[in-house]
Amino acid sequence: MEIILASGNRHKLFELKEILPDHKLLLPEDIGINFDFEEKGNSYLENSMGKAFALYNQVKRPVLADDSGLSVKALGGAPGIYSARYGSSNGVILEAHERNLYLLNKLKGIDDLRAEFICCMTLILEDNRFFTVQESVKGQIVRESTGINGFGYDPIFYLPQYGKTVAELPESEKNIISHRGKAGIKIGKLISISAS
Ligand code: IMP
Question: Cα–Cα distance between 109 and 118 in angstroms, integer?
Answer without folding.
Answer: 25
